Amino acid sequence: MELREATDADWASIWPFFHTIVSAGETYVYPRDLDEPAARAMWMVAPPGRTVVAVDEHGTVLGTANMYANKMGPGSHIASGSFMVAPEHAGQGVGRALGEDLLAWARREGFRGVQFNAVVESNTRAVKLWQSIGFEIMTTIPEGFHHPTLGYVGLHIMYQKL
Ligand SMILES: CC(C)(COP(=O)(O)OP(=O)(O)OC[C@H]1O[C@@H](n2cnc3c(N)ncnc32)[C@H](O)[C@@H]1OP(=O)(O)O)[C@@H](O)C(=O)NCCC(=O)NCCS
């Protein structure tokens, strides 16, 4: 697996699994019917942010992440980011590699910490993965997320100081 900067041409490979993940409504605070142009505008962040893809030896896109300053101005020293791994390639270390890449980027860029604003409590794979690379649950917004089958569940703010 290789991680590289995403190009415009990668979007066609990202959109199918992006759509699957977002329309399921279980892990992201995006509208479940988010259309393709809006999704592209949201995901493919421009510099000084960065969007990356993880690809295999055949060039198949396995997953993607984006990363950017969490807030503007006096809050711009804290980074944030988002992650999506194609369901058929989950559980193979792609998410971990993308998470570690975000941390390396944030250190290189001089950010002082990384904050994930909305990690769904029931998304135990993500919560455990982020904890395993150094993030802590700072607080949980009770019933902050409306899950399609579980109903209202907590929404974690996760953070790590760099
Ligand atoms: C969450 C997500 C990014 C994780 O990516 P991934 O490539 O599947 O994760 P990894 O293969 O790197 O595995 C991460 C950990 O999860 C664990 N894991 C794998 N499959 C699992 C499963 N079915 N249930 C629970 N944990 C699992 C692995 O054990 C691994 O830990 P380890 O490296 O100590 O063994 C990915 O599943 C995804 O895109 N999910 C949908 C969107 C999403 O939730 N994004 C994150 C929002 S905060």
Explain how this protein is built:
The protein is of the alpha+beta class and 162 residues long. It has a single domain, classed as Aminopeptidase (3-Layer(aba) Sandwich). 28% of the residues lie in helices and 36% in strands. It has 4 helices and 7 strands; from the N terminus they run βααβββαβαββ. It has helices at 11-24, 36-43, 94-108, 124-132, and strands spanning 2-5, 50-55, 61-69, 78-85, 113-120, 136-147, 151-161. It has a 7-stranded mixed beta sheet with strand order 1-2-3-4-5-7-6. Strand 3 and strand 4 (78-85) form a beta hairpin. It is globular, with a radius of gyration of 15 Å. The chain starts with a strand and ends with a strand. The chain binds coenzyme A. The site of coenzyme A has 21 residues, from strand 4, helix 3, strand 5 and helix 4.
Question: In total, how many beta strands?
Answer: 7
pLDDT averaged over residues = 98
- Number of structural units classed as domains: 1
Using the CA coordinates, give the radius of gyration: 15 Å
Please state the structural category: alpha+beta
Helix content: 25-40%
Assigned CATH architecture: 3-Layer(aba) Sandwich
CATH homologous group name: Gcn5-related N-acetyltransferase (GNAT)
CATH topology: Aminopeptidase
| Helix count, DSSP H or I runs of 4 or more residues | 4
